[in-house]
């Protein structure tokens, strides 16, 4: 279970071409009020489990400022019986020694967004003036490492960049990243016609196969790739933590700077459950009819899934990345990609000699 907290709404200091928030105003700085933050922490304290996983997200969350983050720590300490797992997902361009020291002192985990090498990253991840942001982002990563923080990396793959699998993977590895995740860009913004970013299932399958081969050739077991971890864990009879593999979409929520609650932020703002003001505590959210109706809808499996060998590994994928099948039931857009990739990995393993 986890919560993505958009503490500055959609506000961001860069202008990624593929950003799923591009339909919204990314120039308006709207930081969550301290009153809303206090209500948010009280809401999270009502979770039934001892640990509260909070992903401070955006937009760019560091635009909220160090003073706001100090308030986060102060308020969380008012609930000493809760174990707070704080994660910041950042574009890394604003990180300085002060931020790095804060993260270390308060036990924050950091994920950064880097799309491979400088050349590939700068295709889409640009400033408001249209300039590449790679050097600024990697400067932030270097500062984190100077403070002994080893960030994970999320790399978004689009129709423009999918052909650079080798350059992207080797670029991330040579830059020192050990914990890598790839996101296939699936268009959720309004301008779906003529989409120049969304991947076809063939593109995504090809990319994953190439990444697997590169990972094998690299022969460094300290490097973890989320998409490979999932299939290799399944082969060993273990479960994976990735939400898009577990069918656990109803365990993740996004809360924006006003306290409004949505499913995972990949849905954008299409599905709205209510506000932390109206719910007060977590139990009221998960017993609300709007949530129950949505939860029931995402757990309806297409017939294709019910007979699939990989059902326990895939679970119909990310529920925000689905399209209606012939019967009107929502099927994971990259179903065929996963089938091809999982078959490919199994056949490679059966040949022997592949490290797991």
Describe the model:
- There is one protein chain.
- The protein is α/β, with parallel strands linked by helices.
- It has 2 domains: 291 residues, Alpha-Beta Barrel (TIM Barrel), CATH 3.20.20.70; 59 residues.
- 39% of the residues lie in helices and 16% in strands.
- It is built from 15 helices and 12 strands.
- The strands form 2 sheets. A 10-stranded mixed beta sheet has the order 7-6-5-4-3-2-1-8-9-10. A two-stranded antiparallel sheet has the order 11-12.
- Helix 6 crosses helix 7.
Radius of gyration: 20 Å
CATH superfamily of the largest domain: Aldolase class I
Q: What share of the residues does DSSP label as strand, in percent?
A: 15-25%
Q: Quickly give the structural class.
A: alpha/beta
Quickly count the helices: 15
Kindly report the average pLDDT value: 91
Helix fraction? 25-40%
What's the number of domains?
2
CATH class annotation of the largest domain: Alpha Beta
User: How would you sum up the global shape?
Assistant: globular
Q: How many β strands by DSSP?
A: 12
Strand order of the largest sheet: 7-6-5-4-3-2-1-8-9-10
| Largest sheet report | 10 strands, mixed
Proper CATH architecture of the largest domain: Alpha-Beta Barrel
Reading the helices and strands in chain order gives EHEHEHEHHEHEHEHHEEEHHHHHEEH
| CATH topology name of the largest domain | TIM Barrel
> Could you name the ranges where pLDDT drops below 50 across 5 or more consecutive residues?
189-194
């Amino acid at each position: 279970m986890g919560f993505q907290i958009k503490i500055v709404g959609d506000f961001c200091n860069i202008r990624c071409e593929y950003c799923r928030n591009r339909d919204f105003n990314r120039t308006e700085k709207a930081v969550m009020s301290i009153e809303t933050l206090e209500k948010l922490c009280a809401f999270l304290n009502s979770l039934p489990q001892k640990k509260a996983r909070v992903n401070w997200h955006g937009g760019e969350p560091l635009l909220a400022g160090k003073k706001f983050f100090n308030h986060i720590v102060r308020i969380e300490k008012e609930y000493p019986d809760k174990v707070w797992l704080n994660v910041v997902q950042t574009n890394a361009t604003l990180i300085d020694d002060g931020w790095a020291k804060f993260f270390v002192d308060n036990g924050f985990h950091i994920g950064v967004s880097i799309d491979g090498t400088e050349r590939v990253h700068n295709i889409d991840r640009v400033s408001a003036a249209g300039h590449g942001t790679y050097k600024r982002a990697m400067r932030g990563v270097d500062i984190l490492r100077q403070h002994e923080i080893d960030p994970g990396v999320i790399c978004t793959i689009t129709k423009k960049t999918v052909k650079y699998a080798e350059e992207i993977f080797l670029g991330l590895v040579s830059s020192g990243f050990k914990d890598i995740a790839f996101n296939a860009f699936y268009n959720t913004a309004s301008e779906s016609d003529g989409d120049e970013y969304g991947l076809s299932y063939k593109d995504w399958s090809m990319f994953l196969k190439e990444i697997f081969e590169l990972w094998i050739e690299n022969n460094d077991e300290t490097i973890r790739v989320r998409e490979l971890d999932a299939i290799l864990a399944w082969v060993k009879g273990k479960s994976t933590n990735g939400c898009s593999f577990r069918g656990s979409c109803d365990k993740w929520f996004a809360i924006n700077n006003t306290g409004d609650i949505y499913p995972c932020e990949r849905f954008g703002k299409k599905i709205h459950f209510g506000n932390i003001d109206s719910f007060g505590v977590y139990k009221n959210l998960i017993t609300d009819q709007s949530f129950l109706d949505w939860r029931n809808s995402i757990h309806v499996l297409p017939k294709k899934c019910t007979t699939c060998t990989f059902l326990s590994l895939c679970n119909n994928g990310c529920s925000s990345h689905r399209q209606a099948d012939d019967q009107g039931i929502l099927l994971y857009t990259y179903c065929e990609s996963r089938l091809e990739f999982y078959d490919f990995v199994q056949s490679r393993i059966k040949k022997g000699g592949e490290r797991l």
